[in-house]
Structure to design on (293 residues):
């Protein structure tokens, strides 16, 4: 036993020395070294990376740009036409065309106690949102998506753990829910290009997301059916909000600016698409999530 402990201790010391040497070597060569998984340049586009390259070369620094989450240079990805892919937050095979023919008026009438509890919980949450954001639909959408991306991740995580505990298949639900969370996150990445949230709105995101994550986690443990009903009614409210967003765009109250480049690539939109086109496809996504939940 003493021999084993001694050997283990020596091995740990050796590994520690190698790690320290690697960090020092990277620092000596002018490389960025990720600490505790801190995100570094993961959301830069190709053009922004080139600007960083030019700046580094002018400063005499390292010309290589590392664009992945962990500081490891990712594989070069290209579009179908052979041009470089410029987004780090999603890949070409994750893009799609939204189904705009989906029924937007479908409504699940609450019948059981859990249905009514979910319905009125969502209705009560809408009031403070209306008061806080008024008709600032860009920032409203930003806030909505920071919350909407939580349920899919929580549900997928809990189903994943359940599948591991019971040694059983999930019937495809884990991937479905995680894909939903990823889709909602891309909605946020898009609206971040459109709206410029104020400092107090960013602070509100921390508070709301922290409260909602824990509340939804506990609700899912207590009753997955209730949790999914809540999401379904949240998506119905999202459809309503984006419909109002479209009305303001049509009135001219909100400028119908060109669509962000990230939205054009993600939803495979025409190059001349506008903000209205983006809101249309996002609303269709929300309708799909409503039906799933």
């Amino acid at each position: 036993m003493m021999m084993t402990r001694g050997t283990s201790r020596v091995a740990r010391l050796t590994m520690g020395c190698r790690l320290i040497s690697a960090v020092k070597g990277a620092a000596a060569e002018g490389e960025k070294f990720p600490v505790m998984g801190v995100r570094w340049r993961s959301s830069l586009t190709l053009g922004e990376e080139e600007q960083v390259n030019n700046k580094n070369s002018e400063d005499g620094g390292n010309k290589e740009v590392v664009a992945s989450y962990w500081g490891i240079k990712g594989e070069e990805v290209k579009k179908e036409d052979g041009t470089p892919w410029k987004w780090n937050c999603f890949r070409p095979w994750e893009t799609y065309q939204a189904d705009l023919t989906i029924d937007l008026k479908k409504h699940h009438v609450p019948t059981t106690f859990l249905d009514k509890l979910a319905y009125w919980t969502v209705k009560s949450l809408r009031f403070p949102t209306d008061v806080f954001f008024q008709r600032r639909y860009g920032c409203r959408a930003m806030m909505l998506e920071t919350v909407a991306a939580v349920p899919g991740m929580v549900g997928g995580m809990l189903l994943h753990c359940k599948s591991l505990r019971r040694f059983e298949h999930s019937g495809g639900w884990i991937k479905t829910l995680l894909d939903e969370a990823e889709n909602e996150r891309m909605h946020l990445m898009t609206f971040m290009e459109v709206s410029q949230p104020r400092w107090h709105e960013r602070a509100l995101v921390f508070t709301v997301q922290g409260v909602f994550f824990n509340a939804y986690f506990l609700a899912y443990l207590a009753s997955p059916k209730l949790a999914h009903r809540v999401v379904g009614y949240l998506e119905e409210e999202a459809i309503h909000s984006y419909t109002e967003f479209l009305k303001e765009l049509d009135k001219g109250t909100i400028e119908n600016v060109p669509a962000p480049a990230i939205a054009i690539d993600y939803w495979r939109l025409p190059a001349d698409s506008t903000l209205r086109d983006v809101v249309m496809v996002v609303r269709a996504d929300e309708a799909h999530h409503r039906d799933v939940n």
